[in-house]
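Archive entry: two folds, one per protein. Generate the first.
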Amino acid sequence: MQQNLRRTSPASGPAKALRAKRPRGDIARAIGVRILDGTYAPGQVLPNEAEWGRTFTASRTAVREALKTLAGKGLLASRPKVGSTVEPRHRWNMLDRDVLAWHLATTPIEKFVTDLFVLRRMVEPQAARLAAEARTPAMVARISAAYERMERFRGGGHDLIAADLAFHLAILETTVNHFLTSLGNLIHTSLEFSFQYSWQGAAGMKDERLHKHRAVLAAIRAGKPQLAERHMTGLLDASLGDLHRYFKRQKKAAAKPAATANRKKAHVHSRS
């Protein structure tokens, strides 16, 4: 009887099973977001494993694995007699897919996408140049197929975004540079997010954007590296312009209700 009681006690029964089942990925995300949003600043010592366990109703093993995951991404370091400390920002692996997603959840959207375009403008024009030099019929066919999908779904929606994403990733892969290919995979989620806003910003100008994509494809197909680089630069600049116009419209729309409310409030005060 005593043995059965021990098996069903809160410490070793359902409560323990619940803690053990808490995914360490969820814990890593929750702590990672708190680091990225500044809740825990660089140099700050994090709560210990026991405290995190109580916070997330998780086992210490799950917490320990989550902290190891975050250390592997450069967000924190564990030191004897000190515990887990948030690392300086320059050590964070911002190209890690998880870190990018957490960063997206904590950073103003316009700044996030603008920062992403800074990276893209440094990489993709050179990638287009390399693609024009290293092209093969199969590689060109893949880029062309992605462009044809963009034409087919020019009306918008997720299919257009997926086709646009495939176009850019195909160019990175055509470079036959494994580092560039890996970069494309790492920022996949962020590219998809930025394309969504870019195409919204390009409403009414889709023909022009498609023409710019077609020009990049034509230069790569013709084996003209300088022209491919120039057209890709122009495409990215135009896309960033689309984004800024989109965010400007969003800010203007958001400001209208506030302005109307202020006018009504002023009118009420003037009558009193």
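Generate the second and append.
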Amino acid sequence: MARLLLVAGMAWTLPNTLAGLLLGVGAMAAGARAAWQPAELALVFNRYPWGPGGALTLGNVILNTGHGLQVPCRTYACRAGRSDAPPVVLADHERAHVLQYMVLGPLFLPLYLLCGGIGVRNRFERAADRYAATGAGWWPWPRP
């Protein structure tokens, strides 16, 4: 059953994944390196040459400007001066986004943008930070 849900989630977010694949494959000419990372449920393009730093998830693709995802990163709350929590692992934060994409599919990006885009106010980013810090709570809305 779990495998069926994974396949269904990957199929549902395929349009987002294809966009990530196009960007990742295009970046390989500039030095990006691709590797399937089962723990993240994603194809990761490390050394992605464009962007301000960090990582961006598109479906089951993670575009990472660093050499790997197993690095500490500050949470959005820390960056905004709202918390002094310890850093989280970038891979865990991005895995939360992969899971969010697999549930929301093509609805992810519009909802993400409606929630404020990149920043501490965005419930998707807060949920990803929570998941990276605790291993639970990647869903961006509280349960009723």
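Annotation attached to the second fold: Residues 44 and 80 are 27 Å apart (CA to CA). Strands lie at 33-37, 42-46, 55-58, 61-64, 72-73, 88-89.
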